[in-house]
Amino acid sequence: MSKCDHSIFYRKLVAGTILLVVYVDDIVITGSDYAGISSLRSFLHTRFHTNDLGQLKYFLGVEVNRSKKGILLSQRKYILVLLAETGKLAVKPCSTPMVPNVHLMKDDGNPFDDLKRYRRLVGKLNYLTVTRPDIAFAVSVVSQFMSAPMAKHWAAFE
């Protein structure tokens, strides 16, 4: 954890660790010190108007699923919304997110018709690499064309 990150706080004691993550008006409290977590929640409730939503299920586009084997983080819902937004909900999965050995050039192909939409979609794909590192290379390639995206570049994902 960076000493410069002012949205993540932690406390480590013999009883265990407490992590507190703040994002705008959402707070996630987790750790191994259950008594300390309970005390922290009570303290925050006396100082601020808070609602305890129970166990974390969804935070910043990441779903949290618990099982006996552990915790699974996924962006399934995020991906489904992205696929629906791009009209790709019915497409079949492929083994690679990009046509292999494609060499994209800035001046090749036709310009993408909506630069703002392209940038938004590439940003969403970049956020998706949090749980899908397998698409990181393809996303980095299309990110290089943010100033002059082309339909050919977007087609590389299909």
Note the topology.
Elements: E1 8-13, E2 16-23, E3 26-31, H1 34-47, E4 58-59, E5 62-67, E6 70-74, H2 76-85, H3 115-128, H4 136-143, H5 151-155
Antiparallel strand pairs: 1-2, 2-3, 4-5, 5-6
Structural class: alpha+beta
Strand order of the largest sheet: 1-2-3
- Residue stretches low in confidence (pLDDT < 50, at least 5 long) are 149-154
* Order of H and E elements: EEEHEEEHHHH
Rounded to the nearest angstrom, the distance between the terminal CA atoms is 37 Å
Let me know the average pLDDT. 83
Beta strands, count = 6
The biggest beta sheet is recorded as: 3 strands, antiparallel
What is the rounded Rg?
A: 21 Å
Relative strand content:
15-25%
Task: Write a compact overview of the structure shown.
Helix content is 32%, strand content 21%. It has 158 residues and is an alpha+beta fold.
What does this structure look like?
There is one protein chain. The protein has a three-stranded antiparallel β-sheet, covered by helices on one side. A three-stranded antiparallel β-sheet has the order 4-5-6. 32% of the residues lie in helices and 21% in strands. It is elongated and about 60 Å long. The two termini are 37 Å apart. By secondary structure, it is of the alpha+beta class. A hairpin with a 2-residue loop joins strand 2 (16-23) and strand 3. Residues 149-154 have low confidence and may be disordered. Helix 3 (115-128) runs antiparallel to helix 4 (136-143). The protein has helices at residues 34-47, 76-85, 115-128, 136-143, 151-155; strands at residues 8-13, 16-23, 26-31, 58-59, 62-67, 70-74.
